[in-house]
């Protein structure tokens, strides 16, 4: 069985309940470029996901090949969802796929979707009909293979149509569309609008008279997907400010993230709730050194240590994982006291059944070291198990206090460009190209190692459209200090060391910038 399902215009919440139910139970999903990755999250984990859209630098899969994929999957007994943007029968080539299924006697059903032809103008405040103003609307392709200028034959005749004209796939032909409508008798001052990424958080609209719309589009740098609307209602703006609707303070902001996948998944989720468009830029990978001779020696000498210091949740996790994997008994730690740098590290320790004996009030290496220096004595033996390149402040303070410690590398963190990795992991080029090419308003850093990886990656990120530059956001002082070492000032330092604090700091920045009127919409 094959279901041709309309995904709606972009915002995943605009998919039908029936479509969502089919996604969440299908055995195979065949999709091309998706406006949102959310759809992929609705399918069961065992579902086969087959991407048939444009590959970076390659052409799309030919329609015959897509038809063959659908037929083969269905004949193998799977319930297949063929997901299409908008509605499957509006310029979606759904009909061709159905003909192929019929030729093989495969049962199918179509599930309508909200078409972008109506929804995208609507979300930009443009009604396609309005009593007394527009009594009809016409949905026209702006790109055909055989027409002159890639436009449908006798295109001029559309210039004499009453009502609202909606062009899909027309952005590349906009100058010809405008010129030929005017040739066909349409007044050059007829209102026109172009809407980019309609219904998505980074939706943009430009409006101008038909004769000037192309210049306006070029000036704004409007890209695809985009819809062109021509007619009296194109000048309507029937929406209130986006921010009083459900979009959140970060609507339209692009945020690049540097951090472990675990961290950027959580941060990304929280930022999306506020309306941001997020994308991991560098994925930090944690590489364990628990098996290295120095750490193994430390495990053998646990009886000699009186304090164990953790400066990160990663460190805690890797330390205990190694004990578990090599069959060490936790009672080896029975006599040891634990110090943690902050909340998150403390919570991870508690996950392994141990409660921290010491945590400083402010979560930084210096406070940790000063606190310990005031309660430990020279008869204590301290084990610091932490990441390579950890702050030297910690050890220098302990040393000055005359305390005896072993500072051992338990792991190191390395950055990997997300773009490279996405292409290696999945068939889909995905949105990994987004940050560099489309610009980023903010980049978030959650560790000094992330800052170092970013600076040495040679990445050249374009400035964001909302902020006009890329603002650097650090989770706390240590991370910001790492930027400073390289002569760069962090634009925002959150200082709360947790995800909600980081999100709040960015939202506050965006709100105050907009209040100053410095952000352009
Ligand atoms: N079946 C789809 C249309 C497919 S043709 C539907 O019913 O909506 C693809 C064209 O749709 C794009 O070139 C663009 O013109 C338009 N489009 C689709 N989604 C869009 C969006 N979110 N914003 C602007 N245009 C969109």
From TrEMBL:
GO terms for molecular function: uroporphyrin-III C-methyltransferase activity; uroporphyrinogen-III synthase activity. Keywords: Methyltransferase, Porphyrin biosynthesis, S-adenosyl-L-methionine, Transferase. Residues 1-211 form the Tetrapyrrole methylase domain. InterPro entries: 4pyrrol_Mease (IPR000878), 4pyrrol_Methylase_sf (IPR035996), 4pyrrol_syn_uPrphyn_synt_sf (IPR036108), 4pyrrol_synth_uPrphyn_synth (IPR003754), 4pyrrole_Mease_sub1 (IPR014777), 4pyrrole_Mease_sub2 (IPR014776), CobA/CysG_C (IPR006366), Siro_Cobalamin_biosynth (IPR050161). SUPFAM superfamilies: HemD-like, Tetrapyrrole methylase. The keyword Methyltransferase applies. Its EC number is 2.1.1.107. GO terms for biological process: methylation; siroheme biosynthetic process. The keyword Methyltransferase applies. Pfam families: HEM4, TP_methylase. Residues 275-504 form the Tetrapyrrole biosynthesis uroporphyrinogen III synthase domain. PANTHER family: S-ADENOSYL-L-METHIONINE-DEPENDENT UROPORPHYRINOGEN III METHYLTRANSFERASE, CHLOROPLASTIC, SIROHEME SYNTHASE-RELATED. This is uroporphyrinogen-III C-methyltransferase.
């Amino acid at each position: 069985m094959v279901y041709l399902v309309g995904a709606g215009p972009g915002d995943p919440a605009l998919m039908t309940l029936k479509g969502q139910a089919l996604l969440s139970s299908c055995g195979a999903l065949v999709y091309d470029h998706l406006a949102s990755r959310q759809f992929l999250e609705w399918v069961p984990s065992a579902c086969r996901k087959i991407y048939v859209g444009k590959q970076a630098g390659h052409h799309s899969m030919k329609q015959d090949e897509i038809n063959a994929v659908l037929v083969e999957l269905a004949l193998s007994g799977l319930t297949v969802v063929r997901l299409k943007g908008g509605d499957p029968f509006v310029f979606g080539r759904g009909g061709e796929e159905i003909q192929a299924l019929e030729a093989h006697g495969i049962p199918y059903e179509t599930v309508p979707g909200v078409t972008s032809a109506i929804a995208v103008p609507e979300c930009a405040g443009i009604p396609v009909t309005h009593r007394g103003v527009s009594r009809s609307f016409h949905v026209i392709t702006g790109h055909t293979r055989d027409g002159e200028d890639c436009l449908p034959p006798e295109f001029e005749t559309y210039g004499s149509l009453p009502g609202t004209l909606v062009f899909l796939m027309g952005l590349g032909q906009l100058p010809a569309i405008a010129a030929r409508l005017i040739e066909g008798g349409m007044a050059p001052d007829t209102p026109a609008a172009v809407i980019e990424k309609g219904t998505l958080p980074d939706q943009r609209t430009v409006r101008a008279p038909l004769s000037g719309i192309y210049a306006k589009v070029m000036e704004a740098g409007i890209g695809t997907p985009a819809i062109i609307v021509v007619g009296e209602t194109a000048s309507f703006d029937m929406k209130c400010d986006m921010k009083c609707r459900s979009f959140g303070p970060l609507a339209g902001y692009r945020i690049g993230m540097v951090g472990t996948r675990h961290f950027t998944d959580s941060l990304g989720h929280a930022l999306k709730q506020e309306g941001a468009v997020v994308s991991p830029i560098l994925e930090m990978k944690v590489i364990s050194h628990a098996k290295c001779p120095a750490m193994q020696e430390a495990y053998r000498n646990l009886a000699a240590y009186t304090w164990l210091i953790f400066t990160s949740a990663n460190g805690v996790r890797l330390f205990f994982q190694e004990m578990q994997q090599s069959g060490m008994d936790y009672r080896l730690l029975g006599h040891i006291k634990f110090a943690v740098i902050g909340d998150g590290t403390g919570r991870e320790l508690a996950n392994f059944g141990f409660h921290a004996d010491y945590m400083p009030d402010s979560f930084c290496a210096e406070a940790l070291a000063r606190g310990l220096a005031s309660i430990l004595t020279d008869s204590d033996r301290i084990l610091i198990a932490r990441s390579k390149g950890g702050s030297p402040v910690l050890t220098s303070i302990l040393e000055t206090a005359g305390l005896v410690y072993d500072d051992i590398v338990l792991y190191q963190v390395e950055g990997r460009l997300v773009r490279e990795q996405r292409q290696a992991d999945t068939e889909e080029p995905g949105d990994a190209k987004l940050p560099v090419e489309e610009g980023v308003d903010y980049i978030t850093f959650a560790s000094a190692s992330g800052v170092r990886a970013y600076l040495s990656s040679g990445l050249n990120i374009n400035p964001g459209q909302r902020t006009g530059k890329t603002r650097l956001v650090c989770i706390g002082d240590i991370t910001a200090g790492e930027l400073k070492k390289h002569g760069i000032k962090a634009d925002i330092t959150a200082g709360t060391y947790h995800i909600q604090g980081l999100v709040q700091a960015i939202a506050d920045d965006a709100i105050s910038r907009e209040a100053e009127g410095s952000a352009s919409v």
